[in-house]
Design brief:
The protein is of the alpha/beta class and about 300 residues long. The protein has eleven helices and nine strands. The strands form three sheets. It has a five-stranded mixed sheet, sandwiched between helices. A two-stranded parallel ribbon has the order 3-4. It has a two-stranded antiparallel sheet with strand order 6-7. Helix 8 links the parallel strand 3 and strand 4. Helix 1 crosses helix 4 and helix 9 crosses helix 10.
């Protein structure tokens, strides 16, 4: 076991043991120290949020937004560490979804649903809520090193009722399994605002070019499952989300598959951008995002193995 893995284990154990107000104060203080320190992750978040809010926002207001963003990210970690200790009732009370009736109808009809998510709010709380609601849910997790950390995050999410597939190294390609789960009526949430494969689809996003994973669009096109775009944010008392859609999908004979995937992925990008613009402080993007961004200021802080749209 290395220090990174030991740190995550300590987080899960110690943070759950502390009273929430005490733990919350400690995490907020850590976020404020990161803001004052202005390390790589903070600088990258600042650059990313500048793209979102545009050049007109005064620097002092952008700085306040960056601090709020770091506090939101710290809240995500606090709540992720505490999730395994929550009861089903507490999980259900701690998350609110506008549009839940759409997913309920999709699951009941056996057609499943693909949900494209941003790295915002608390995606682990969202997954735990879906599982606690009683809906089958399958997603994909980035297989990061060290392997022990990846395995512990998989165990953490599986313990909350989610089925987690590795991006590679599994017995079957994850895309095939996700397609099977959709045809069986499962909810398939996939983080979709950042490509991790270098094979993503180039899209326009806040006035710049970036790549986003093809997986959500391709799954919907191949299976016919409805495709939604989520907005995610925090309220003082809960993690929240809303879903827009289902998105209109082009007819199979309207264009080649790659053109249809590009069209739908751009629609996803537009939907994600609208949600992020409404709640920029809760977009936890501390990594390089746009193709014209240089490597300077790349974050050095650890990120959790993310559920990802790269399938």
């Amino acid at each position: 076991m290395n220090l990174t893995e030991a740190g995550y284990i300590a987080g899960w154990r110690l943070v759950r043991a502390l009273p929430r107000p005490v733990a919350a104060a400690a995490f907020r203080a850590g976020a404020d120290r990161a803001h004052r320190g202005n390390g790589g992750g903070t600088r990258r978040l600042r650059a990313n949020l500048r793209r979102v809010v545009g050049p007109e926002l005064p620097d002092a207001e952008l700085d306040a937004l960056v601090r709020a963003g770091l506090r939101s990210y710290a809240r995500y970690w606090l709540e992720a560490f505490r999730l395994p200790g929550l009861s089903r009732a507490e999980i259900l009370a701690g998350f609110r979804l506008d549009g839940a009736e759409k997913l309920a109808a999709d699951v009941a009809a056996g057609r499943g649903a693909v949900v494209a998510l941003p790295h915002a709010g608390n995606w682990d709380a969202a997954g735990a809520w879906v599982a606690a609601t009683g809906w089958p849910m399958t997603t994909v997790a980035e297989r990061l090193k060290p392997e022990g950390v990846y395995e512990r995050f998989v165990a953490f999410r599986e313990g909350l009722g989610m089925e987690i597939l590795p991006t590679h190294g599994g017995p079957r390609p994850p895309f095939d399994i996700l397609a099977d789960r959709l045809r069986a009526g499962a909810v398939v949430p996939l983080l979709a605002d950042r490509d991790l494969s270098a094979r993503g689809v180039e899209v326009d996003f806040f006035g710049g070019r970036t790549r986003m994973p093809a997986g959500p669009a391709l799954l919907a096109l191949r299976t016919g499952a409805p495709l939604y775009v989520a907005s995610m944010w925090y309220e003082p008392d809960a993690a929240c989300a809303s879903i827009e859609g289902p998105l209109a999908l082009p007819e199979p004979d309207s264009a080649p598959l790659d053109a249809r995937v590009k069209l739908v992925t751009q629609r996803i990008a537009d939907g994600l951008a609208a949600g992020i613009a409404r709640h920029p402080q809760d977009w936890h993007m501390l990594q390089r995002m746009w193709l014209d961004q240089g490597p300077a200021g790349a974050p050095t802080s650890a990120q959790p193995p993310a559920t990802t749209g790269t399938v």
